[in-house]
Each structure stands twice: as C-alpha cells, then as structure tokens.
Specification:
The protein has 233 residues and is mainly α. It is built from ten helices and no strands. The termini are far apart.
Length: 233
C-alpha cells in the first residue's frame, strides 16, 4: 500500500470511534443537564462527566446549544420513520400511522429511561433566562416543525376520508400539543397517578375521536359517532 493511501479499515474504525465519542458526550450532557439544570451546566461539566477534554467536545459541537440540540435530535430519530410514513401522501392509512406514532411517544417515555430523562430536562430543567434563550429557540423551532408535520399528516387523513373535510387544523394541532404535553408533564411529576404505558392507546384514541366527532374542532360535517353526537360541553 502506498504511503499516501489511507487504510479503509482504519478510516472506518476511526470514523466509528469518533461517532462513539460524540454519542458518549451527548449521554454525559443529558446527565449533567438533568442533574444541574441547563443554565447552570457548562462544557467543563459535560467534559468532566464524559471523561474527555473540552477540545474533544469542540471537535464535535460548536457550543452548549449545539450539544443540547443534538440531544433533542437523537431522541426524535426513533419516531422519525413513523412520522415520515404518516406524512407521506401515498400512505394508505395515515391516521393509523399517526396513532402508532403518538402511542410510541407516550410508551417510550415510560419504558426508556434516557428518553424520559430528556422530557424531564425539557419540562423541569430548562430555565427561561437570557443565557438559555438560544436553547429555548431550538425548542420553539422544534415545536413549530412538529406542528407542520401534524398538519401534513392530518391533511393526508382528510384526503383519505379518515377525518372530516371541515377539520380545523390549527385547533387540532393545538389540542394535540396540549393533550400530549399535559399527559407527559403530569405523569413525569406523578408517575403513580395513572398508567401511562397501559392507557396510552386510550388517550390517543380519545384525541382522534375529538378530531372526528367534536363540532368545535371537526366542524359542521363532523362524523356522527355510534350512539349519537358528542356533547360540546
């Protein structure tokens, strides 16, 4: 092998080691954010937790905000396949894919400690200060992006005749954020107050029923449920 030619096996190993270090730093950051709060955490704290130098962190991330964003992105990825299927105009059953996605988010919060830790950081460890404003801007952008994805998914469901054509998409998105955030916040605060894992499907189905039957969201052409119309009270 020529002296100037890189061993492809070595290159792959080096790349894999770099990715492993990056993931290790994100793990460490989540532990530090959870323990100290985001605003009181520093890159030095993260480096110490990870057992690496600040230089190693700067090799992978620009700053603390970048580490925070990577943490959020990593915990979004497992749901991305379901989300993409629900958003796909060619998906034959977008509403069921959407249902699967929402149930997965709720159940994974119960079953996956790392995923749960990220939600605890978002709900309880992100102080709204001038220092954390760039971090909160990332959260706001994620919220808006999620709303756009939901609108596309519900639009697909309308096209397939699974939801009323008169559905108020803005209210549907707001209702979803309120319901999912409320469920997660309450369960994380009082995990023994209800069985989020066992009742996840029921909670999601109640939201979908609202989209179909509640006139204030579904509109005048709301589907009529078995047993008669749903009360507006």
């Amino acid at each position: 092998m020529n002296r100037g030619t890189q061993d492809p096996t070595m290159a792959r190993r080096t790349k894999a080691e770099a990715q492993e270090t990056r993931e290790h730093i994100i793990d460490a950051a989540a532990l530090v954010f959870h323990r100290k709060g985001v605003s009181r955490s520093s890159l030095n704290d993260i480096a110490q937790q990870a057992g690496v130098t600040r230089g190693a962190i700067y090799w992978h991330f620009k700053n603390k905000q970048d580490v925070f964003a990577a943490m959020l992105e990593r915990h979004r990825l497992p749901t991305e396949a379901l989300s993409q299927r629900a958003e796909d105009p060619g998906e034959e059953d977008p509403l069921d894919r959407f249902r699967d996605l929402l149930i997965d988010v709720l159940q994974r919060t119960v079953r996956d400690p790392d995923h749960r830790r990220v939600f605890e950081i978002l709900f309880y460890k992100c102080e709204f200060t001038e220092q954390t404003d760039p971090l909160m801007q990332r959260v706001r952008e994620s919220y808006l992006d999620g709303g756009d994805k939901v609108r596309r998914t519900l639009g697909n469901a309308i096209e397939r005749g699974q939801l009323p054509a008169t559905l108020n998409l803005d209210r549907a998105v707001t209702q979803l954020h309120v319901q999912m955030t409320g469920l997660l916040y309450t369960w994380l605060l009082l995990p023994d107050s209800f069985d989020l894992d066992g009742e996840a499907a029921d909670f999601v189905d109640s939201y979908i029923a609202t989209l179909r039957y509640c006139p204030t969201i579904a509109g005048e052409r709301a589907h009529t449920p078995p047993g008669g119309p749903v009360s507006q009270t």
